[in-house]
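Project outcomes to date are best conveyed with an example. Our students and postdoctoral researchers have been running inverse folding experiments weekly, and each run begins with a structure described purely in tokens. The record below, which covers 110 residues, was selected by the lab manager from last quarter's runs and is presented without edits.
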């Protein structure tokens, strides 16, 4: 769900990476939305607590940001973190679209 939310934000780093890899954000949104269970606004609390999976993604995202000498975590770092967690639904979707950590890191470094 976190990655789906990030794809709706015009995050410059994530948009840059996806364009370098010739992958449309709309394609990722579509694939993720077919795998997620829809919910209504009435079912959601005003503020969502962090889940263990999100905490794990943030944990993996921090060294990715530091590797690129960036102090702040960006959507592109969370994308990399999603690719490091094969137990997550985002990993499966991103892998099926041809994304892997090495390709994303290369696009960021270019």
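After processing, the design step wrote out the following sequence:
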């Amino acid at each position: 769900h976190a990655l789906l939310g990030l794809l709706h934000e015009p995050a410059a780093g994530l948009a840059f990476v996806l364009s370098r890899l010739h992958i449309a954000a709309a394609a990722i949104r579509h694939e993720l939305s077919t795998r997620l269970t829809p919910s209504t606004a009435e079912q959601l609390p005003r503020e969502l607590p962090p889940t263990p999976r999100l905490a794990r993604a943030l944990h993996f995202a921090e060294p990715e940001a530091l590797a690129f000498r960036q102090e702040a975590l960006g959507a592109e770092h969370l994308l990399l973190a999603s690719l490091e967690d094969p137990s997550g639904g985002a990993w499966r979707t991103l892998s099926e679209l041809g994304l892997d950590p090495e390709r994303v890191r290369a696009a960021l470094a270019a």
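The helical segments are 2-7, 12-20, 25-35, 52-67, 75-83, 89-96, 101-109. The mean pLDDT is 80. The training component of this project remains on track.
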